[in-house]
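Section 3.1: Structural characterization of target chains.
Under the original work plan, the team committed to producing a structural model for every single-chain target entering the pipeline before any wet-lab resources were allocated. The record below documents one such target. The sequence was received from the expression subgroup and is listed exactly as submitted; it comprises 187 residues.
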Amino acid sequence: METWLALTLLALGILLFIGLTAQLGRETVPASRARDCVQLNAGPVRSVIDGDTVVVQSGWNPETLRLDGIDCPEYDQPWGDTARHGLIKLIGGRTVHFERHGVDAYERTLATLYVWERKESVWLNVNLRMVMLGHAWVSQPLLQHLPATRRKEMLAVSRWARRKRVGLWKHSSPVPPWQWRNGERVQ
């Protein structure tokens, strides 16, 4: 009887330890996103390739992340360099936390990035902030797998940036990057 009781207490202790450890790991996730996370990772930013692609050190290996749900102007497109510099200003030289959402056709990890904003004491959704600053379009096809609340938030912020003529929306008729890549370069 004592052996059974000892084993039961040991099993409960292990389950409690696992539960507490899992809970501690979640403390680094923005509270509003904790239940939506697919997988949370963290790593220092090694380089910013363009407005929607970064390289982070993930464990022993560098990992290329494509900011999910957005599309920034290409490097040779008007506002492309500005979008890249905007992303550098947000995350350059910092450690980001990111949710993995899959892999794109170029073998880049699709991700939502978060960075701690000390002034506001909040985790910033970098993808959303790029849209808010007028550095990116929301890409409808890239949004479909995200939770409905996040899709609505991205679209609302996009409408706000366009209406307020923030960033690339200052231009009278900015060309979306997917059209630019297809040769439609009228500005």
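Residues 52 and 67 are 5 Å apart (CA to CA).
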